[in-house]
Amino acid sequence: MHVYLQRCGMGNKGMSAGESVTLTLQQVADLAHAVLRRHGLAEAHVGPVAATIIAGERDECASHGVYRLLNCVHTLNSGKVVPDAVPVVHHVSPALLRVDAAGGFAQLAFATGLPLLVEKARTMGIAAMGINRCVHFAALWPEVEALTDQGLVAFACTPSHAWVAPAGGTSPLFGTNPIAFGWPRPGGDPFVFDFATSAVARGEIELHRRAGKPIPEGWTIDAQGNPTTDAEAGLAGALLTFGGHKGSALSAMVELIAGPLIGDMTSAESLAHDDGAKASPYGGELIIAIDPAGFLGAAAAEHMQRAEALFDGITSQGARLPSQRRFAARRRTPAQGCRIPRALYEELAALS
Ligand SMILES: NC(=O)C1=CN([C@@H]2O[C@H](COP(=O)(O)OP(=O)(O)OC[C@H]3O[C@@H](n4cnc5c(N)ncnc54)[C@H](OP(=O)(O)O)[C@@H]3O)[C@@H](O)[C@H]2O)C=CC1
Ligand SMILES: O=C([O-])C1=[NH+]CCC1
To answer: Which GO terms of the molecular function aspect are on file (predicted)?
Structure first.
């Protein structure tokens, strides 16, 4: 594989200073497919798992791009994911479905349930899909974008491992518990936000540790409960929630609605199930899809157009929309390629 070498600063989000290589999107795809196949992931899973990793790199989301291949390989090697799991869809009621991921990665389970979720949302106006027994290592925006692509409003959340202390406490209890929301926009990119309910995704702290860089204050506390800017000490202690008690309550909500509400694990239970393997989190995910025509019928287009004033109100004062950075990267990387830290590239190349 021919790759371009260069020195990089802090350009891409999560990208460390130091030597980097530039890969075309095709090279990123080839690398992802090769690594996953080499480590025994069944062919049916390779495409969907690789797609989320390639999309992460394309959108310059370094914490959930090719870096995630290391976690995938580790999870495969530790036997904490079923590499050839066959997801099974269960129709629960007119507005509800479950997908049993059977211990496999979440991506194939999501793709398997998606058509029925869309059909139910269109029929009922709102529908929810619970994915059970899945290994989730990825960003959630590819999933909400799969629904906004169909003209649906989307919400998704999942617990992870107990790495985050509740506001006012010092012991890890919550996962990094991301929440993603998507709103389809006429003739443009959807409005999408997707964030961990911790101050930052754990992957971002791992990238700082790899790069030997300090982390900002307010992300973590060490094992003694003291604030720390040392990535290693923070990972050994606990992450903090974003927005204090507000992020803490949202994180608890994710634990509840994508855990016990759908008969699946909390982040504490996921970590206990992991049993020290340090594999990716295991448990459930909740996805909700809303058809604007459900409430509005033929008036849906008019009201969706009216909603555009909100986005204009944000951007016209110089503020940016969430995902605007990602969408800009998405338009750039097909021509410019993806910059990856050289050390990470070499580690992945060895795994392929
Ligand atoms: N599967 C799992 O268990 C977990 C997955 N994750 C994933 O990690 C990823 C990163 O999470 P996190 O570190 O919290 O995300 P970030 O803090 O990087 O970004 C959160 C959101 O805020 C937007 N944003 C950032 N800066 C601004 C700004 N100045 N103005 C407006 N919007 C802004 C981002 O858009 P943009 O992208 O355009 O910058 C993004 O939509 C997520 O995709 C999440 O799904 C996290 C935890 C657990
Ligand atoms: O960055 C993060 O916090 C995680 N990403 C996938 C599982 C947890």
So the answer is: delta1-piperideine-2-carboxylate reductase activity; pyrroline-2-carboxylate reductase activity
What DSSP element (H or E) covers 109? helix 106-124
Centre of ligand 2 to C-alpha 80, Å, is 16
Q: Which residues of the chain have pLDDT under 50?
A: 4-17
pTM: 0.95
Q: Are residues 173 and 253 in the same domain?
A: yes
Does any ligand 1 atom lie closer than 6 A to the CB of residue 160?
yes
∠ Cα 280 193 244 (to 5°): 75
Model pLDDT, residue 7:
39
Closest CA to 164 of 73, 267, 91: 267
Q: Do both 136 and 183 map to the same domain?
A: yes
Of 204, 255, 269, 285, which residue is the catalytic one? 204
Residue 180 and residue 57 share a domain: no
Query: For ligand 1, atom 11, which residue shows the shortest CA distance?
Result: 195
The ipTM assigned to this model is 0.99
Quick one: which atom of ligand 1 is closest to the CA of 138?
1
Q: What is the pLDDT of residue 1?
A: 53
Number of domains within the chain: 2
User: Considering every ligand atom, which ligand is closest to the CA of 196?
Assistant: 1
